[in-house]
C-alpha cells in the first residue's frame, strides 16, 4: 500500500465517484481504476462495489478499513505539522463538524483568531445534525465537532451551557405568568425542535411529572417560531443569542421552572491522537468561549 493509494481510496468514498476523485487528484480514469484494483489485490479483499443505482458502495470490510485509512492519513498530516512546527510555523487541515446554529455562533471568531496567527492552517466545514456529526467523528470523517450530550464515546470540553425558554403565542392563557412551571405544560401541543433540544426537553418533562405531547417535530428553530406564530403549539428552545435572530410578531418568551439548560460540547475521537492543528483549534475555542 502507498500513501497515494490510501488517499485515492478515501477521496473516492468522500466524492462518491471514481471520476471526481481522479479529477481532484489529477489522475486519469484508467489510472484510478488500476490503483484501486491493485490495492484490493494487495489486500485480498473487495473494498468498493460500483452500483448503477447507488453509485459507489463500500463493502463491510471496506467500511472498517476506511476508518483505519483515515487514521493513517491523519498520521501523515501529523508528521507534516510536527516538521512545520519545528521550523517555526503551523500548517494543516482541520475538518470540522457543526450544526448550523453552532457554526454561526462559534466559527467566525475561531477562524479569525487562528487565521490571523497561522494563515497556513486550512479549514473544511461539514454541517449536519447532531447524529450526523457523531457518526462523522466515529468514522474519522471529521477531526473535531460540536455535539450535545449524552456523550460517552468521545473526549469533549463544554463550551456553552445555555438556558432554554418557553416560546408561545402572546394570546395563550399561560402568557400571563412571568415564569411557567412545566406541570402547566401537561399535554399542551409542543413543537419539538431537533438538533440537541430533545434530551433536555424530555428530561424536563420527566422531572416535572408532565406528559409531553409532541404535536410536530422540526429541524429548524425558525420553522418552530413560525409555527408558534400560526398558533400550532409551543416550543422550548435555547436563548436568542445562539440560535434565534429575531422573534416573529405575537411570539413571546417565558422562563421555565425547573430551569432547563442545554450544553454544547466540542468533541474529538481522541485528544491525545489529535494533530497539532486540531489541538490549536480546541485551545482557541476554549480561550474564546469556554465556561
From TrEMBL:
Keywords, comma-separated and alphabetical: DNA-binding, Transcription, Transcription regulation
Kinase listed as a keyword: no
Pfam families recorded: HTH_1, LysR_substrate
InterPro entries named in the record: HTH-type_LysR_regulators, LysR_HTH_N, LysR_subst-bd, WH-like_DNA-bd_sf, WH_DNA-bd_sf
Keyword Disulfide bond: no
Recorded superkingdom: Bacteria
Residue ranges of coiled coil: none
CDD domains, sorted: PBP2_LTTR_substrate
Domain HTH lysR-type: 1-59
Sequence similarity: Belongs to the LysR transcriptional regulatory family.
Protein name (database record): LysR family transcriptional regulator
Lineage per the UniProt record: Bacteria, Bacillati, Bacillota, Bacilli, Bacillales
